[in-house]
Amino acid sequence: QVQLSESGGGSVQAGGSLRLSCVISGATACTYTTYWHRQRPGKEREFVSGIDNGGSTNYTDSVKDRFTISQDKAKNTVFLQMNNLKPDDTAMYYCRTDQFCWRSEYSDYLRSNSWGQGTQVTVSS
Asked: I need a surface site. Which of 35, 62, 102, 104 has the fewest CB within 10 A?
């Protein structure tokens, strides 16, 4: 099964930077799209950024020109570089994958998705 391990959160002052990492394991026979979501205090979980297997990216408007999503396929790791952080960026950040994986027992691909445990980002003014 696909498992995600997140790291890189922490506390920074406004204007600072953090780099989040999501290590994806168990996806050798999978193609997948990876997303970052966040949940700010008192708000619904929201989409932040995504990157597909071919490297195409998307960002929510509030983080464009500040955040950059990237992937190192050799290390099965997806990153979210966050620059010029603002207090409104304070949230729990979650990594998610949506994948199609070959399952030999079914001789077919199975679609599934996985969530990481989340990593806290706190930005002070």
From this structure: 104
